[in-house]
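User: Please fill in residues for this 268-position structure.
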């Protein structure tokens, strides 16, 4: 994944898991969770995604940090299905809301090659309360468990307000230089909402040529302006049927976005 972060206009497709056992919206059908994960992963790869990331998106309301074992066990099973469907493409994991330790454990157990961490450095006020970054612990656990795993770390993450203020530029520089992130992620206000392009440009100016990904709201309509500054994107909602986050992935939508990205020319 490290090489891919710098090699091309990166399209990371999101596999949103339905509610897992123990969460309020779990429907009682464990097999359906794994089938949906496999089907969405296959559609994303067939459409041209470079990598996939698995999230326990259906588990609202989220735990702030430590996620229960039954959810992690289900994610491990789903990750295995997604890795099989990915055909060698990198697969990552985001354990919502911010359980970086569990995400690293999943990588160690399944061979997944990257994680997304919503709050890696600094602190944020979220709908789960105050979440503090644990970069020091995360980096040491990665070295112990899975040293090759890449850390994709959000800056001023969605569904949150940074605690203590400060500019997104300084937060990005700290996350990269002091938090040792392998790539930075900039999102909008919430799932499916794109960041303001000037915010993306400001982060790009602050971090030079470091890998910089759009973390929400990337679509065919805004891809060109976002990729003037970003080097990749993590995309979920706009690749679903009717652009609805709870719907299945549509291969045609992935193909159209892939063609658009390939036609944008040299990487920013």
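Assistant: Residues filled in for all 268 positions:
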């Amino acid at each position: 994944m490290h090489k891919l972060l710098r090699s091309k206009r990166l399209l990371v497709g999101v596999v949103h898991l339905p509610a897992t056992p123990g969460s309020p919206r779990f429907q009682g059908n464990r097999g359906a969770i794994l089938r949906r994960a496999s089907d969405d992963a296959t559609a994303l790869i067939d459409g041209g995604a470079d990598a996939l990331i698995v999230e326990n998106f259906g588990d609202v309301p989220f735990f702030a940090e430590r996620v229960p074992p039954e959810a992690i066990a289900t994610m491990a099973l789903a990750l295995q299905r997604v890795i099989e469907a990915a055909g060698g493409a990198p697969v990552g994991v985001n354990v919502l809301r911010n359980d970086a330790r569990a995400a690293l454990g999943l990588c160690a157990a399944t061979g997944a090659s990257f994680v997304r961490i919503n709050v890696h450095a600094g602190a944020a006020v979220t709908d789960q309360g105050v979440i503090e970054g644990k970069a020091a612990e995360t980096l040491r656990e990665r070295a112990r468990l899975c040293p090759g795993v890449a850390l994709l770390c959000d800056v001023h993450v969605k569904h949150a307000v940074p605690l203590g203020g400060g500019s997104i530029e300084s937060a990005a520089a700290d996350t990269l230089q002091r938090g040792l992130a392998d790539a930075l992620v900039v999102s909008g206000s919430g799932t499916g909402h794109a960041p303001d392009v000037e915010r993306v440009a400001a982060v790009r100016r602050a971090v030079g040529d470091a890998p910089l990904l759009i973390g929400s709201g990337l679509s065919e309509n805004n891809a060109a302006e976002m990729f003037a500054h970003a080097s990749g994107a993590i995309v979920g909602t706009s690749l679903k049927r009717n652009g609805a986050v709870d719907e299945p992935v549509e291969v045609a939508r992935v193909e159209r976005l892939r063609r658009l990205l390939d036609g944008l020319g040299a990487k920013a």
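For context: The first helix runs from residue 2 to 7.
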